[in-house]
């Protein structure tokens, strides 16, 4: 146990350093774990952070959700009355570099396990290896989504990816990979983990959670057929819930319920989100979001999410649930020009949320709102009524969850918008959707290229 204690001390030292910084630190008395139990302790440290709601790298804490909602257009910045919800992303740019380092700290632990764990045949050894591959793939997915420019199929071989640290090398100073290399690495890690068929839910990242993130990766990188097929595997295991079961799931503050695969804070005490919940009510919900609820009270989400004064009352959560897979399938089929299946999955989720429900048909879809913030799809084409309806449904379903709206804005054209508050114009410009690499990494490693727009950062 002495070895574990020494290593955990080193891990805490590295916890707040970024990619280049931790690679540049000289080894001072490091003790690498030896047994499967000691290696698994590295994994459990990160799982415990998720359970306690203190994870800011993998799934994210509920406070992360609050910030991303503040960056997006779901809450009205013009009518803001609180300084606890950021008015726009520019106020938090510095903190994004800390998150970059936190992600690489998790990757460091995964690399130590994958490089050094010799016991890969015992049940514990196999579980530890599977989760190390999964967490590394998920962290690189999070890095790609936040620190790389939006995916562009025509430029993927030349676009910047992120530095790929594949082994624990104290002297390494990796340059940025190309985007396609980053994508291939993520997919390889996740598919490797999936093949190990880790089914123990006590380890949180079982095979279905891994497939969930693989579906997300395929979706972000516009591999529509693979995204739909992988999402279906998850949805088949975690079918949509509705009615009282849906209400119980959405109102649950700490317990994982319904079709949730993973959530943050399940070991927190009741009431732990009350403080942030109150602060969120310092900004009313934007009228643009409210207007999407055309069925109003017939939509179970309307009264569940908003007060009569159009303030938030949805429980704050960082969670993944299979409704996202349903909407990934709908959009993927739309991009594949498979209108029948796209409508089927769009109508499936709506039928689970709206009473006195009538299916959308190709002829009854609402027209595209020319005043909506998103006007182009992920491929750069003008929105069709079908894709607009799917994006609108996603916005309604995942309001106040996981920063979903922010990344949907990024994925679909990076639209610019602004809030006017206290005589100041807060403008979200296109480049701000891609966060900067830390200045310290750029200084230590001349091979690293900063993201556009941050030359003077």
From TrEMBL:
Recorded GO CC terms: cell outer membrane
Keyword Signal: yes
Stretches assigned to the RagB/SusD domain: 318-454
Primary location group: membrane
Localization (cell): Cell outer membrane
Family from the record: Belongs to the SusD family.
Top-level taxon of the source organism: Bacteria
Domain SusD-like N-terminal: residue ranges: 21-196
Name of the molecule in the record: RagB/SusD family nutrient uptake outer membrane protein
UniProt keyword terms in alphabetical order: Cell outer membrane, Membrane, Signal
Database matches in Pfam families: SusD-like_3, SusD_RagB
